[in-house]
Each structure stands twice: as C-alpha cells, then as structure tokens.
Write a structure and sequence with these properties.
This protein has a single domain, classed as Nitrilase/N-carbamoyl-D-aminoacid amidohydrolase (4-Layer Sandwich), CATH 3.60.110.10. Helix content is 24%, strand content 29%. It has 7 helices and 14 strands.
C-alpha cells in the first residue's frame, strides 16, 4: 500500500475576511510544485476563530466550499479545513474535505470551546467522520476535540491518521503538543495537528507549532512558529510495523459513547 503525501499550510489569517483568506491560500497553493494527495488548512480558515457566525456563515453551496472544490479539481489534491457553515437555521464549525473527484466529506466539531462561548453559538456534531484515500483511513477532528480521548479513541484501528485543524492559542501551546503526541501513541496512528499563526481580531496570539506525530508518539515534522508550507510523507510500512510489533490496540478497553 502506497505512502500518503500531504501538504500542511500553517498561516496567519485575515480576521473575518473570507475573500482575503481565500486569495492568500490560493497563492500559497499555486506556489506548490507537488501538492501531494491532501492539502490541509487551519480551523475556520476563512475568518479566524470568531463567534460572529451570523455575519460570516456560508451555506454548503457558498463561495468557500465552491472554492475548495475548484482548487481540488485543479490541483488533483483534496483540500481540507474548517469554516463556518449555516444549515437549517443552525451554525456549525464544519471540517470540510473536498476531493478532486467532486465529493464532499464533512465533520461538525463535537466539542465546542465553552470558554469562548462557542457552545452558545454553534451546534455540536454527533458523529465521527472517516475519509478513505488510497487505502488510508483518515479521521477528522477540530481543535478542542483534542482534549477528549474517548471521542478520539481508535477502536479496533478504525483509522490510520487523525487530523486536528485548530486555532490553538500560544498561551496553551504546551498542552497542544503534549496532547497530539499522546493521541498518536495511545491510538497507534499518525496524528496531524495543523494550527495557525499571528493574532486575531480579539488580540489572541497563535504560535503555530503544528506537528505530525507517528504511531509511537514521536514527532516526525515540526512546523515551528512562523508561516510555512511543509510536505509530509506518511509511511504505511512504518505504521504497520508498529501495530504488528507492539499491538497494544488489542488490549484496549471496550466502551460506548452515549
């Protein structure tokens, strides 16, 4: 089974300005010589992490989703990231995966960040989402989900890669790094954490530090604190070696999510 090649774009965001953010990411994507199979963008990549959902939400057939679909077709790579979606008079922090074939896969953020009042504005998701790509199973998560290991649990190796897109503040960045490595080690899967940089319109600072951890929790890519674009190659052979030689997943506790 072939390796999985991804491109991580760690970037500053224009506060509540979808047009500028789309244009900025489009320039970055156009500069890629080899985009790989997936291009990952941060949480709420069109606006930054805002509670003004009524002003900035888009429908699923709106300009940002159409932009993602167009770029996926143009580059031949899936485009993945979260944005604010309005559906049936409710607002969602929705992780959208647009495939080059025109398919859309979505995951609505389950754990809403109450310290910012996100739970009062957005509706929580109630289902997991796994995308399959060339034999790889990729589980989608958003930011605060990272703190909840039960929701992230890889039961019977249901997924090979977990992707957390985020606006994770610099003030809590040590927890970000620790939890990403923990989720990788306990779930025996690759874990990708894609964060933003810069400051938002509320004065909150973000220090990037996106990273990729392998199935034993070791960091194999660290994006540092500045805007950057990093290609990542995930080895299927390495993943299978860990799972076969150290099959801790077989001793996992059984549970049900109510």
């Amino acid at each position: 089974m072939q390796n999985l090649k991804l491109t991580l774009i760690q970037a500053d965001l224009h506060w509540q300005n979808p047009e500028k953010n789309r244009a900025s990411f489009e320039r970055k994507i156009a500069s890629l010589r080899e985009p790989g199979q997936v291009i990952i963008l941060p949480e709420m990549f069109t606006t930054g992490f805002t509670m003004e959902a009524r002003s900035w939400a888009e429908p699923m057939n709106g300009p940002s989703v159409q932009w993602m679909q167009s770029l996926a077709q143009k580059t031949g790579a899936a485009i993945a990231g979260s944005l604010i979606i309005k559906e049936n008079d409710a607002f969602f922090n929705r992780f959208i995966w647009a495939s080059p074939q025109g398919n859309l896969f979505t995951y609505d953020k389950r754990h809403l960040f109450r310290m910012a009042g996100e739970h009062e504005i957005y509706r929580a998701g109630d289902r997991l989402q796994t995308v399959e790509l060339n034999g790889w199973r990729i589980r989608l998560f958003v930011c605060y989900d990272l703190r909840f290991p039960v929701w992230s649990r890889n039961v019977d190796l249901d997924y090979d890669v977990a992707v957390y897109v985020a606006n994770w503040p610099a003030s809590r960045i040590s927890a970000w790094r620790t939890l990403l490595q923990a989720r990788a080690a306990e779930n025996q899967a690759y874990v990708i954490g894609l964060n933003r940089t810069g400051s938002d319109g509320l004065g909150i600072r973000y220090s990037g530090q996106s990273l990729v951890a392998n199935a034993i929790g070791n960091i194999i890519a660290d994006l540092g604190q500045n805007e950057t674009i990093v290609p990542v190659n995930l080895s299927r052979a390495d993943l299978e070696h860990v799972r076969q030689k150290f099959p801790a997943w077989k001793d996992a506790d059984r549970f049900a999510i109510l």
